[in-house]
Amino acid sequence: MEQVLFRHNRPGRVVTFKEYCDEGGFNALRKAISEMTPNEVQQAVIDSGLRGRGGAGFSTGRKWSFVPRDLPGPRWLICNCDEMEPGTYKDRVLLEHNPYSLIEGITLACYALGVRHAFIFIRRGYEKAANNLARGLMEAKEAGLLGQHILTSEFSVDIDLHLSAGRYICGEETALINALEGKRPNPRSKPPFPATKGLWGGPTVVNNVETLANVPAIIAKGPGWFKGLARNAEGAGMKLFCVSGAVQNRVCVELPIGTPLREIIDGPCGGMKPGTKFKACIPGGASTQFLTPEHLDVPMDYDTVAKVGSRLGSGAIIIFEEGCCLVAATLNLITFFARESCGWCTPCREGLPFVKEVLTRIEAGGGEERDIEILREHVKYLNYTFCALAPGAMAPLDGLLRHFEAELREHIVQHKCPFK
Amino acid sequence: MIPEQLRKSLEARVAHAFSAREAAVDVMKDLQFHYGWLTDEAVGEAAEILGLSRLQVEELATFYEMIYRRPVGNKMIHICDSISCWNAGYEKILDHLKARLGVEVGGTTADGQFTLVPCCCMGRCGDGPLISIGSTIYDHLTPELVDQALEIERLSGTAAPDHKGQA
């Protein structure tokens, strides 16, 4: 199968700069600088249908188009490599194999946006990825593909690495901007949106690693080619899916957008773990709603997954088997979100620990019928916050209430966890 | 007091930044590496180097998972307790670690060698359950492999720079 992001991968090691270049690497940058205007690059990304791979799924080219080009002062690009959504490890796998597609993608984005200085914000614990990037940046600079007068043109870009010290909220784009500025990383109230007022008050674009790493192929081979890679007519391009949980092989694979869930499980994952049966999964990282066996044939694309009440998110699929208690699973997820809440907005800071308490009680056999209504209410309260991570924190609970209310009630009626 | 060489390198880091406080996390990490944890003295030194008040540094120091405002052991043991590791059975590994080390979560071993803390997703969800000791990741764990990992880390002695990026 055609690979875009994993095309340059070598088993067990990082691709070298020379190998990447020999396989056509940095040709997209050459093409853009010599043949295309910045607007044409942006238009190609819009036409390709590329959508944000970090979780929100917004059109990347349109996001770029919101940046005003006529304001005085610098504009900024930030690559979000704060991959801390539980279940998600695709950006790490990509960067441990190949830092160059990202470097080339960032450079192309900077060309389109007129950005002179970009940052890569890397989470803690990704030292290998950071080392690959640091070396890659040096190699690109030495080859005249980064820094002053790229390929002897008038276009110049520098890229800096920022190594974080660990906190889930830093992945929220306005919190990330505060973190980069050296402020306490609470999200900012929007509007203004970063596109007009972001890093140090300047227009700023924040894009995920996988999103930016797709840009070189779009420019090299054209938006039509990229769009056509998807399995479904509305989809565009390929997607990295990283799978964990009750499957035979827990793998990170690149597959066409629109590949049905069943094919991912039965194909690269080698099916369910021997002796287990699929009960549910979380399709796009911790902050997405459960899917059930009736959803196994849903094409994994943004709108198709949204239509069945969940989100494609980051493409992190977490599989649960029959016999696994989803109240306990939801409790684990809520515990994570309660701990990682930045504490700024009351519904999130106070609501998540409260929900955790209620779920703990239910799981321990002390639940009451009215608890179900209490949980249902709290799903709504978390919408009244600055950032989208708070409603995201409630997504698993929302899914539990919609698909597994009977299981929740069983805990209450039996005064114990029915799976123990 | 920090050595002159460290002060110079921190000042160089600040000079490279667009605004001084942009370097705050790097400065805190380096000071923590020097002291073993971010001491009150280190907070004062960071404030001075960054041109911030102590309170502003405190505000940052208490936010991040990898900055320690209390004394910790020679090496940090982080155990991922997020959903994929939960699904892979991290709780058994945690119980085993607590028993072997004779500490509760957040505790430091009597010999000052290890501090055990849970942490959020390490981005290795296909390889759980897993822990990091210092800067080394140990994955696909069983209780036997935990024992081996502890043995290796005890023998290798001095602290690994888990809180200092090597990039």
TrEMBL record, chain A:
InterPro entries: NADH-UbQ_OxRdtase_51kDa_CS (IPR001949), Nuo51_FMN-bd (IPR011538), Nuo51_FMN-bd_sf (IPR037225), Nuop51_4Fe4S-bd (IPR019575), Nuop51_4Fe4S-bd_sf (IPR037207), Soluble_ligand-bd (IPR019554). Pfam families: Complex1_51K, NADH_4Fe-4S, SLBB. It comes from the Bacteria. Keywords: 4Fe-4S, Iron, Iron-sulfur, Metal-binding. Residues 327-372 form the NADH-ubiquinone oxidoreductase 51kDa subunit iron-sulphur binding domain. PROSITE patterns: COMPLEX1_51K_2. GO terms for molecular function: 4 iron, 4 sulfur cluster binding; FMN binding; metal ion binding; NADH dehydrogenase (ubiquinone) activity. PANTHER family: NADH-QUINONE OXIDOREDUCTASE SUBUNIT F. NCBIfam families: PRK13596.1. Belongs to the complex I 51 kDa subunit family. This is NADH-quinone oxidoreductase subunit F.
From TrEMBL, chain B:
Its cofactor is [2Fe-2S] cluster. [2Fe-2S] cluster binds at residues 80, 85, 121, 125. It comes from the Bacteria. Pfam families: 2Fe-2S_thioredx (PF01257). Keywords: 2Fe-2S, Iron, Iron-sulfur, Metal-binding. Binds 1 [2Fe-2S] cluster. The keyword Amino-acid biosynthesis does not apply. Transmembrane segments: none annotated. One of its GO terms (molecular function) is NADH dehydrogenase activity. Signal peptide: none annotated. The keyword Metal-binding applies. PROSITE patterns: COMPLEX1_24K. Belongs to the complex I 24 kDa subunit family. PANTHER family: NADH DEHYDROGENASE [UBIQUINONE] FLAVOPROTEIN 2, MITOCHONDRIAL (PTHR10371:SF3), NADH DEHYDROGENASE UBIQUINONE FLAVOPROTEIN 2, MITOCHONDRIAL (PTHR10371). This is NADH-quinone oxidoreductase subunit E. It comes from Geomonas silvestris. The gene is nuoE-2.
